[in-house]
């Protein structure tokens, strides 16, 4: 029940974006493919942000009344190589899906910047619910995004037509699905409502 509620809060901004841009979608024969891959991307972002990272919400901040003050800003001081590897793996799909779905994300710096900002958003929001905020996570997530883009580039070399049918219904679309959806979760998700 908590999962479905959180998923609905996360999916709502992206769904509203698609509804508001339905006229642009109607004009393109690949609209169903685009919507399908957009929801795959949204679900990936939800999995990374909510299920794996576990961000806090404004309701957590109001409940606790303060931010967590334990922040690690010393690089590579965390324990466990497995944690580093999992953070890299968690963000690789982001680096692959952005250029696969949107042609305007075929430049490595754009993809890495989105990965960095998404990771930074997660780390800041973890202050709300007393989860570990760690610069190592930021570094490894960004590295994972870069490696994901490398996988995309290799995939594109092998399958030269991959991503050729990508369409664009607005320059803000990938940002709505990442940051807009995250804001939907931060503002709308209050797990305490289920117990009322």
Offer a quick outline of the entry:
This protein has eight helices and two strands.
Describe this structure as you would to a colleague.
With 196 residues, this protein is mainly alpha-helical. It contains eight helices and two strands; from the N terminus they run ααααβααβαα. Strands 1-2 form a two-stranded parallel sheet. Helix 1 packs antiparallel against helix 8, helix 5 packs across helix 7 and helix 6 runs antiparallel to helix 7. The chain is flat and about 50 Å long. The mean pLDDT is 88.
Secondary-structure element string: HHHHEHHEHH
Query: What is the residue-mean pLDDT, rounded to a whole number?
Result: 88
Strand order across the biggest sheet? 1-2
The number of helical segments is: 8
Give the low-pLDDT segments: none
- Net shape: flat
> What proportion strand?
under 5%
The total strand number stands at: 2
* Structural class label: mainly alpha
End-to-end Cα distance: 14 Å
| DSSP helix fraction | 55-70%
Based on CA atoms alone, the radius of gyration comes out at 17 Å
Largest sheet: 2 strands, parallel
């Amino acid at each position: 029940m908590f999962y479905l509620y959180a998923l609905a809060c996360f999916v709502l901004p992206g769904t509203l974006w698609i509804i508001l841009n339905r006229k642009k979608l109607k004009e393109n024969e690949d609209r169903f493919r685009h919507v399908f891959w957009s929801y795959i991307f949204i679900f990936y972002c939800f999995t990374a942000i909510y299920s794996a990272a576990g961000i806090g919400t404004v309701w957590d901040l109001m409940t606790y009344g303060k931010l967590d003050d334990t922040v690690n800003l010393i690089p590579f001081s965390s324990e466990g190589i497995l944690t580093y590897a999992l953070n890299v793996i968690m963000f690789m799909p982001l680096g692959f899906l952005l250029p696969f779905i949107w042609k305007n994300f075929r430049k490595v710096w754009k993809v890495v910047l989105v990965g960095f900002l998404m990771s930074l958003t997660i780390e800041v929001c973890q202050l709300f619910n007393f989860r570990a905020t760690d610069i190592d996570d930021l570094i490894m997530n960004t590295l994972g995004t870069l490696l994901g883009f490398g996988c995309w580039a290799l995939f594109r070399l092998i399958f030269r037509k991959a991503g050729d049918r990508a369409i664009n219904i607005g320059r803000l679309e990938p940002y709505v699905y990442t940051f807009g959806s995250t804001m939907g979760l931060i503002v709308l998700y209050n797990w305490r409502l289920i117990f009322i």
